[in-house]
């Protein structure tokens, strides 16, 4: 595959960003005339049943997720006054199972000179023997200059930690020195403690167009000093928002708390790229305050992504109750700002995902937290179903607009795989050219989700296998182009490659969480994941159908499919 140099990609992405801005909402842009607009109608048929979303208004980044004294806490960026970005506070919900939630008072909102213009993203650290501390970004002026601030629960014994205080003698806890760009200085990470007696955090930034994760150290969590060198940086990647840094064990799929020493771990550094609004990560090693990505982990635009769809500003936390690491990610709308105002709401959170290192050591695996299974209702099955070219078979008997589907496909030969065109630099280029309607060799095969009976609308999630010199390339697509009869929607053919050797075992699996306006899919046990936001006009409620399909000449077998009606989560 051709690999253009990074500045060409950077310029390309910049122009792309300008072009698609009517689809993906422009960020940190204030819409004064759209705040406090009364709601005309609600997009009820597109509200989700089991993805996290509040009853109304705008939400964005997940903030400070943590488990404390038997309760999960989830905070998120929220506009209490409207369904566009602005007036940002930390809304707060609590849960015992990560699926059903109860809202409590806003935890952090502008109340001090250092956060008068917004309380932006940040993280929680549970300090042993002391309790939780939140570090967040305060915006102190109209020019959006940023400082880091400190908040603690007013009453650590309150199980819901309803009230948070910002001690005046400490705040702001961290201000940019003259070498740091003060309007690009935000989103502190969870702190980790090292044997040298220091806490450490990262703060996202940029120097010109170089993305930077600044490293700060503190002995007491109060006075923070910037390390001479950032933990890591990368040219031409633009602003690094919401950095996240954590260890993953080499030998098992458990999560680890903060950063531990030892050889049995790898480290993950994730950054959210403001220019394109996607989360990319590398796997590497961490020693003497330097992080070095492995040579199997591309560092930059071509790097691995948590999700190849609509998933941004993610944040992980260690869950000590189940010894796992869980990530949250924000899925923005892909309709217009005008539609969001009409609906009265915008933004959902992806289902929390357990994350661990793939035994191949080259990438992460992600899977919906096991608690989600408690919402599974009626189950239907399909077994040993052969799919010849051009065949769609309906999965009948479930509520296809709110469902969970797991399917394993197999086939007997790779001989018919089509050649991979080297002009397709990114997976999305391949999917743009080779959609589900283009007949192929091995694939396209997969699911047609949120489909009308006669396929006037459908969102296909599928695989397609190509030959590329000495290897096979497995493409996974979640293609919104036919998802809705409505125009003026952002309808991308999201795609990623799946790192899998199909030569001996010709099987591949897919799980899709379908929830009215979201199709969140996990390819091959969470190797490649894609979340799409879609707004069908006809394939809604009981008019939504689900099919398995094959449009390649190689026959495909559905070895086993299980689909469940999903109950709605209790999100108060
Ligand atoms: N959202 C927050 C910022 C962060 C951005 C503001 C990422 O702190 O950088 O709402 O979506």
TrEMBL record:
One cellular component term from this protein's GO annotations in UniProt = vacuolar lumen
Its annotated compartments are: Membrane; Vacuole lumen
The protein's topology relative to the membrane is: Single-pass type II membrane protein
Q: Which domain of life is it from?
A: Eukaryota
Glycosyl hydrolase family 32 N-terminal domain mapped to chain residues: 51-368
| Signal peptide limits | 1-26
Q: In which pathway does it act?
A: Glycan biosynthesis; sucrose metabolism
Record-level Gene Ontology MF annotations: beta-fructofuranosidase activity
- Keywords for the protein's UniProt record, in alphabetical order: Glycosidase, Hydrolase, Membrane, Signal, Signal-anchor, Transmembrane, Transmembrane helix, Vacuole
Catalyses which reaction(s): Hydrolysis of terminal non-reducing beta-D-fructofuranoside residues in beta-D-fructofuranosides
Q: Which InterPro entries match?
A: ConA-like_dom_sf, Fructan_Metab_Enzymes, Glyco_hydro_32, Glyco_hydro_32_AS, Glyco_hydro_32_C, Glyco_hydro_32_N, Glyco_hydro_beta-prop_sf
Name used for this protein in its record: Acid beta-fructofuranosidase
**Which organism does this record belong to?**
Phaseolus vulgaris (Kidney bean)
Upper classification of the source organism reads: Eukaryota, Viridiplantae, Streptophyta, Embryophyta, Tracheophyta
């Amino acid at each position: 595959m051709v690999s253009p140099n990074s500045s060409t990609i950077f310029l390309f992405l910049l122009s792309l960003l300008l072009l698609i801005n009517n689809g993906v909402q422009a960020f940190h842009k204030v819409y004064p005339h759209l705040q406090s607009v009364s709601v005309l109608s609600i997009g009820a048929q597109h509200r989700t049943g089991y993805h996290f979303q509040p009853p109304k208004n705008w939400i964005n980044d997940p903030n400070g997720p943590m488990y404390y004294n038997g309760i999960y806490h989830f905070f998120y960026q929220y506009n209490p006054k409207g369904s566009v970005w602005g007036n940002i506070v930390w809304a707060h919900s609590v849960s015992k199972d990560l699926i059903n939630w109860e809202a409590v008072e806003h935890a952090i909102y502008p109340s001090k000179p250092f956060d008068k213009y917004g309380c932006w993203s940040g993280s929680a650290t549970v300090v042993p023997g002391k309790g939780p501390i939140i570090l967040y970004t305060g915006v102190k002026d109209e020019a959006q200059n940023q400082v880091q601030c400190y908040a603690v629960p007013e009453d650590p014994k309150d199980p819901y930690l309803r009230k948070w205080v910002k001690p005046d003698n400490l705040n702001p806890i961290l201000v940019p020195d003259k070498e740091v760009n003060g309007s690009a200085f935000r989103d502190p990470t969870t702190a980790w403690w090292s044997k040298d007696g220091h806490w450490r955090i990262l703060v996202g930034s940029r120097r010109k167009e170089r993305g930077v994760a600044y490293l700060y150290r503190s002995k007491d969590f109060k006075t923070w000093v910037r390390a001479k060198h950032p933990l890591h940086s990368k040219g031409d990647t633009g602003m690094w928002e919401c950095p996240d840094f954590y260890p993953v064990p080499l030998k098992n799929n458990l999560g680890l708390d903060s950063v531990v020493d030892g050889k049995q771990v790898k480290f993950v550094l994730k950054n959210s790229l403001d220019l394109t609004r996607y989360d990319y990560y590398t796997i590497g090693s961490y020693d003497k305050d330097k992080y070095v990505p492995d040579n199997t982990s591309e560092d930059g635009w071509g790097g691995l992504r948590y999700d190849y769809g609509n998933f941004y500003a993610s944040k992980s936390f260690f869950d000590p109750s189940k010894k796992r690491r869980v990530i949250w990610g924000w899925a923005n709308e892909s309709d217009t700002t005008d539609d969001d105002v009409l609906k009265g709401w915008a933004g959902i959170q992806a289902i929390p995902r357990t994350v661990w290192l793939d035994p191949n050591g080259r990438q992460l695996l992600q899977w919906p937290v096991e608690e989600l299974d408690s919402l599974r209702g009626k189950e239907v099955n399909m077994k040993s179903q052969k799919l010849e070219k051009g065949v769609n078979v309906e999965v009948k008997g479930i509520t296809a607009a709110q469902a969970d589907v797991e399917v394993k496909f197999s086939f007997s030969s790779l001989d018919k795989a089509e050649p991979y065109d080297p002009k397709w630099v990114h997976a999305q280029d391949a999917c743009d050219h080779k959609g589900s309607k283009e007949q192929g060799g091995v694939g396209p095969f997969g699911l047609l989700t949120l489909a009308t009976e006669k396929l006037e609308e459908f969102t296909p999630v599928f695989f397609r296998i190509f030959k590329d010199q000495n290897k096979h390339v497995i493409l996974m697509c979640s293609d919104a182009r036919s998802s809705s009869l409505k125009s003026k929607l952002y309808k991308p053919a999201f795609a990623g490659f799946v790192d899998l050797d199909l030569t001996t075992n010709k099987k591949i699996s897919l799980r899709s969480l379908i929830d009215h306006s979201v199709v969140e899919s996990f390819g091959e046990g969470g190797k490649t994941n894609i979340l799409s936001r879609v707004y069908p006009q006809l394939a809604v409620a009981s008019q939504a159908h689900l099919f398995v399909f094959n449009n390649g000449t190689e026959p495909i077998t559905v070895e086993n499919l299980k689909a469940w009606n999903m109950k709605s989560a209790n999100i108060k």
